[in-house]
Amino acid sequence: MTRGWNSVLLEGGGGLAGAFFRLGMVDEIEFFIAPKLIGGKGPSPLSGLRINKMAEAIPLAIEEVSLDTGDLRVRARVHRTTQAGD
pLDDT tens, position by position, for the chain (86 residues)? Predict the structure, then answer.
């Protein structure tokens, strides 16, 4: 089914984001970095991809960085060389 959409905002947790990355349906990502440090066994932003080594990481090309109410906002393009989690 063709919808003719140019972009879709995907907003959710690591499970939803991981599923869309696994399907190869993400070409741009935007994320925020807060000036705070936490520790512990927190959830992953990309659940279920089984990426544990830097050599397996999904490469990003940063296109824009800005300061948004105290947080860094980063917009980047996803570079696909292999399917994530393969």
Answer: 677 888 888 888 889 999 999 898 899 999 999 999 888 887 778 888 888 899 988 999 999 999 989 999 999 999 876 544 44
Compute the distance between CA of residue 38 and CA of residue 83 in angstroms, rounded to an integer. Answer: 30
pTM score of the predicted model: 0.73
Number of structural domains the chain divides into: 1
For residue 71, the enclosing domain spans 27-34+55-86
DSSP string for residues in 21-63: HHTT--SEEEEEE-S----SSPPPSSTT----SGGGSPPEEEE
Question: Is residue 75 assigned to a domain?
Answer: yes
Tell me whether residue 62 is in a domain. yes
